[in-house]
Known about the structure:
Layout: H1 13-32, H2 46-51
Amino acid sequence: LDDRAVFVATGGYKITFGIAHRIAKYIADEISGVAQNIDLPPTFHPRYHICN
């Protein structure tokens, strides 16, 4: 499965108040094809949920 075609940012306490700005940058960079310099927990990547 090609997880690069899935872009999801759902609401929740961790995202809304904690790292929403990091999630937004990650998704924008992914869509733009920009190399990503952001450190996200593994559980925040689609491939973690799709492939596990």
